[in-house]
Amino acid sequence: MKVRRGTTVRITITGDAADEFHLHGYDRTLKITPGRAATLELVADTPGVFEAELHHSGARVFELQVS
Ligand SMILES: [Cu+2]
């Protein structure tokens, strides 16, 4: 996911298992409850490449590239 610095980013996640979503760098987390959409919103004001992962499954969800 590539965005320009200053963009408002809205991330919505729906999972089939309980987990915790974590966007590194911005250090934002989302609790994931099965079958329920969870949303977080942030202003991408720090440039760089940030990994988003699920803590319990260890899955890498995407990378946020802010430039
Ligand atoms: Cu993490």
Task: Describe the model.
This protein is mainly beta and 67 residues long. The chain has no helices and 7 strands. It has one domain (2-66): Immunoglobulin-like (Sandwich), CATH 2.60.40. The protein has strands at residues 2-3, 7-13, 19-23, 28-32, 38-44, 48-54, 60-66. It has a 5-stranded mixed β-sheet, with no helix packed on it. A two-stranded antiparallel ribbon has the order 2-5. A hairpin with a 5-residue loop joins strand 6 (48-54) and strand 7. The model has no long low-confidence stretch (mean pLDDT 96). The structure holds copper (II) ion.
Brief description of this entry?
Helices cover 0% and strands 60% of the residues. With 67 residues, the protein is mainly beta.
Topology:
Blueprint: E1 2-3, E2 7-13, E3 19-23, E4 28-32, E5 38-44, E6 48-54, E7 60-66
Parallel strand pairs: 1-7
Antiparallel strand pairs: 2-5, 3-4, 3-6, 6-7
The structure holds copper (II) ion.
- The residue ranges in which pLDDT falls below 50 over 5 or more consecutive positions are none
Taken in chain order, the helices and strands follow as: EEEEEEE
- Helical proportion, percent range: under 10%
Number of helices: 0
Class by alpha and beta content: mainly beta
Task: Summarize the biggest pleated sheet.
Answer: 5 strands, mixed
Number of domains: 1
CATH architecture: Sandwich
Q: Identify the overall geometry.
A: globular
Distance between the termini: 11 Å
Keywords:
5-stranded mixed sheet; two-stranded antiparallel ribbon; binds copper (II) ion
